[in-house]
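Retry 2 of 3 after timeout on previous attempt. Resubmitting structure tokens to design endpoint.
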């Protein structure tokens, strides 16, 4: 299993097309894009070299009645093995 698959599995990230609900606002969002990218993290304290870690980028589209997919509010977030922000902020909606 590569690092990206490990992030998806351990963090329970949704697939493209799945709907998630904001725990804070109760709004529904659909996952429109998922891609593997690298994220800059703090520089190494000894050498000063910048470091990068693999992460998964998810693009969210706000589901609104009467609005076609991809039109309207969109936002994206990066998720790594070292954070738990998806679990804290989102719940996957079971269809």
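Retry 2 succeeded. Sequence:
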């Amino acid at each position: 299993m590569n690092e990206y698959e490990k992030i998806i599995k351990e963090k329970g990230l949704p697939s493209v097309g799945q709907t998630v609900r904001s725990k804070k606002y109760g709004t529904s969002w659909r996952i429109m894009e998922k891609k593997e990218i690298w994220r800059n993290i703090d520089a190494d304290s000894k050498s000063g070299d910048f470091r990068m870690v693999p992460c998964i980028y998810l693009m969210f589209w706000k589901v609104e009645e009467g609005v076609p997919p991809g039109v309207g509010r969109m936002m994206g977030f990066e998720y790594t093995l070292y954070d738990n922000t998806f679990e804290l902020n989102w719940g996957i909606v079971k269809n």
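Attempt log closed. The chain has a mean pLDDT of 92.
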